[in-house]
Amino acid sequence: MILGIGTDLANIERIEGTLAKFGDRFRNRVFTETEQRKAARRAEEASTYAKRWAAKEACSKALGTGLAMGIAWKDMAVTNLRTGQPVMTVTGWAEKRLAEMTPPGFEAIIHVTLTDDHPWAQAFVVIEARPIQA
Q1: Is the pTM of this model over 0.90?
Q2: What is the four-CA torsion angle of 15, 26, 125, 71, rounded to 10 degrees?
Q3: How far apart are CA 127 and CA 17, in angstroms?
Q4: pLDDT tens by residue, 86-116
Q5: How far is it, in rounded angstroms, from Cα 34 to Cα 103?
Q6: What are the φ/ψ torsions at residue 32 (nearest 5 degrees)?
Q7: Which domains does the chain carry?
C-alpha cells in the first residue's frame, strides 16, 4: 500500500551559489555528516547536494507535511547501498510522523530515486507500507 508520494526539482546552480555564500553553515544546517562526506568525495559537489536537497523536500511531501510543519532537514538523510542505490532514512520528528502514518501490522519502506541533468536535480520518493511477515 502506498502511504505517500513526493517529488522535487532543485536547481544545481542555486545550490552552488548557496554553498559559495554560506559554505559550512549551509552544509551543517541541512546535511548529515555522512551526506557531507559523500559530497566531498564527488567531483560535482553541488550536484550531490542538490539531489539530496530535492530528496529531503520530496520526502517531506511524501510524509504529508512539507518542511513547514516541524521536520528538520537533518531528520531526513540519503545514504547509498554498496550498489549505489540511494536510501532514505528518517529520524526525529520525521520518524515519528512516519510511524503515525504506518498502519498496525505494517512496516514502512521509503523508496527514493535521484537524477540530475545540469542545471537540474530531481528526486522522487514513495513511502510504501508492507505487511509484517510473522
Answers
A1: yes
A2: -140
A3: 31
A4: 999 999 999 999 999 999 999 999 999 999 9
A5: 30
A6: -70, 165
A7: 2-131 (3.90.470.20)
